[in-house]
Specification:
One of its GO terms (molecular function) is metal ion binding. The chain has about 160 residues and is an alpha+beta fold. The chain contains two helices and ten strands; from the N terminus they run ββββββαββββα. Bound molecules: zinc ion (ZN) (4 copies).
């Protein structure tokens, strides 16, 4: 099965309208009575409460970008430090830059463009079945054909 890694970096700074009910902060659970609040991950935050879990820097000030992984909220620098190295594409063996969407299969990572059957170039969608054989990505058809040629396909009556 195919997994996609996706990042959602977006912080919005909103000014609070005086006539609206104060929003609760997702960090400290108190009401936000400041003039400005931050909106990120579909939640509202005090400017002081949206912080990097690693270095405590205020993310509202750091280029308005945040990164999440495994329920951690991180600044770009810490995200890169912890998760930035995605490694080399198992198909074309070129480096995959951090923050690019990748396909994962077992321990291998692939560029999105490289993740296709290596015999017939068929692309896979999320949820499609694919097979790994000798570290080659194969579609079901080519995988079964390969088994047949090698003569250990399951007996079909
Ligand atoms: Zn707060
Ligand atoms: Zn940080
Ligand atoms: Zn590649
Ligand atoms: Zn194929």
């Amino acid at each position: 099965f195919v997994f996609l890694d996706k990042l959602e970096p977006r912080i919005q700074m909103l000014s609070v309208q005086p006539d609206t009910k104060p929003k609760g902060c997702a960090g400290c659970n108190r009401k936000i009575k400041d003039r400005y609040l931050l909106k990120a991950l579909d939640k509202y935050w005090h400017e002081d409460c949206l912080k990097c879990a690693c270095c405590d820097c205020r993310l509202g000030e750091v280029g308005s970008t945040l990164y999440t992984k495994a329920n951690l909220i991180l600044c770009r620098r810490d995200y890169l430090r912890l998760f930035g190295v995605t490694g080399n594409c198992a198909a074309c063996s070129k480096l995959i830059p951090a923050f690019e969407m990748v396909m994962r299969a077992k321990d291998n990572v692939y560029h999105l463009d490289c993740f296709a059957c290596q015999l017939c170039n068929q692309r896979f969608c999320v949820g499609d079945k694919f097979f790994l054989k000798n570290n080659m990505i194969l579609c079901q058809t080519d995988y079964e054909e390969g088994l047949m040629k090698e003569g250990y396909a399951p007996q079909v009556r």
